[in-house]
Amino acid sequence: MKSRMTVILLAVMAFYALAAPGVAGEKKYKIATLPKLDGIAWSHRMREGVDQYAKETGHDLWLLGPSKSDAAEQVQIVESLIAQGVDAICYVPFSVEASEPALKKAREADIVIIGHEATTLENVDVIIEPFDNHAYGANVMKHLAANMGGKGKYICTVGSLTSKSHNEWIDGAVAYQEANFPEMSQAAPRLETYDDAATDYAKLKEALVAFPDLKGICGAPDPTSVGAGLAIEERGLEGKVFFSGTGLPSTAGQYIKSGAIQTIHFWDPKIAAIAMNKLAIMILDGKRDDIKAGLNLGIDGFTDLKQDPNKPNLFYGQGWVDVDKSNVDEYPF
Q1: What is the mean pLDDT of residues 302-316?
Q2: Among candidates 280, 239, 276, 293, which has minimal Cα distance to 261?
Q3: More exposed terminus of the chain, fewer Cβ within 10 Å: N or C?
């Protein structure tokens, strides 16, 4: 017969086995994080967040994405994840419209969908954004206008004309310019660069030739910061053509230090990945009702979520990071 102490120890061990995340007694969730594109600095940093949170929770979390910016390839991955029977997908769509049928199929299979950089997604449980997109765009333009002296022509880039977040950022930037800097204007319609630095470089180099009086570049995609820096350096246009837009220090920092570009703006994709996966696990744990205005996810930038008044499943965090020559070395990614 087991002693009373043995029985107590076994009971305690059973309790912790049930309470500890990802161990025997608790369901181990399978959650995939699917960015627009894998193999770039942004997705590498996002993978760090996924891997860290997997270790913290014990759940089976991983990141995978298309090898190129292609909506069809991304949708194929969604279809594959449905077939694998994952519990949730944290999704950053290249094209919202192209994604909707596959996401609808996923939800019909009881797969939780967490959206990011996609305020108009419909087949989704929750959308989490790091900030209000129009406000972010206005901030980008504020820095560009300051460097341009509030005058002159500029051009804008987006990854795709169907990339909702990119276009909302540029909408916010242009609206801010028109309201505050009437002596500035767009030189041409938005350039579609497919989230590819080489494409950014090629199209911006053409724009610098086509518009010799161009003074500014407003970039929504992260790779534009690199393409702009290289194009400006090659033509010796430092101090004559200015840049403000999304970028990461690991890729754009060299151009900030050289003076080819002035400011980059971003949120930490590592933290965004943790936020998405945390929300997915909350829903899978039956805590959907806890996702509401004021929710503190316990991670920087997501400590007081704001709820969109017109779309109850859309939430915003608290801000962005502005980086210039004075603080570029403070961010190791």
Answers
A1: 96
A2: 239
A3: N
d(CA 231, CA 187): 17
> For residues 298 and 304, what is the distance between their CA atoms, to the nearest angstrom?
9
Q: CA 226, CA 197: separation in Å to the nearest integer?
A: 6
- Which neighbouring-strand residues pair with 127? 115, 314
Angle 249-258/224-234 helices, nearest 10 degrees?
A: 30
The reported pLDDT for the residue numbered 22 is 44
> Which residue has tokens 């600095």?
41
The answer to whether the predicted template modeling score (pTM) of the entire model surpasses 0.85 is: no
Average pLDDT, the chain: 91
HSE-CB at 259 with a 13 A cutoff on CA atoms is: 5
Count Cβ atoms below 10 Å from residue 5 Cβ, excluding itself. Answer: 8
DSSP string, 229-267: HHHHHHTT-TTTSEEEEE--HHHHHHHHHHTS--EEEE-
Q: Which of 197, 320, 316, 223 is nearest to 268 (CA)?
A: 320
Asked which of 3-12, 41-50, 96-105, 153-162 is least confident by mean pLDDT, the reply is: 3-12
How many angstroms separate the CA atoms of 183 and 303, rounded?
39
